[in-house]
Specification:
alpha+beta; 3-stranded mixed β-sheet; 4 helices; 3 strands
């Protein structure tokens, strides 16, 4: 499978997962519900929630949110973990506005470097899709 097809498949999978989350059908919501029900009812929390891998899965190094606006201003928010990034984005007709934040006190994060890498990645995807247009369905 070529890179353009892989990229299209990844976008479709992400879109599908996003729709599940919007409808409350993503697995993380169900797990949170189970944990809260146990706590509220004085039931021991299942061992899954004490597993280090579960804790690691909740360490969101990149926290994103789309905040669409027709104006050239946008919202921002900080990272949710010390070694992470907060990425607020506003899709526009001819581009995307981004605001990237990180803690300056963290030696492993650098918002400028993240922004440069993001721009390079988006340009690569753009170029890939320009060279490999989606085949016609006819």
């Amino acid at each position: 499978m070529d890179k353009a097809a892989l990229l299209r498949n990844a976008v479709m999978a992400h879109s599908e997962y996003s729709q599940w989350a919007i409808r409350g059908q993503a697995f993380d919501r169900h797990l949170l519900g189970l944990k809260l029900i146990a706590k509220e009812n004085g039931i021991p929390v299942p061992e899954l929630f004490n597993d280090p891998n579960y804790a690691e899965s909740l360490h969101y190094r990149v926290s994103t949110s789309q905040v669409p606006s027709a104006h050239d201003s946008f919202l921002s928010f900080g990272p949710v973990v010390e070694d992470g990034y907060g990425v607020c984005y506003n899709p526009r007709k001819n581009g995307i506005l981004f605001n990237i934040s990180s803690f300056r006190s963290c030696p492993t994060t650098d918002s400028q470097r993240f922004a440069e890498s993001l721009e390079q990645s988006l340009n690569c995807m753009h170029d890939l899709l320009q060279v490999m247009p989606q085949p016609s369905k006819l």
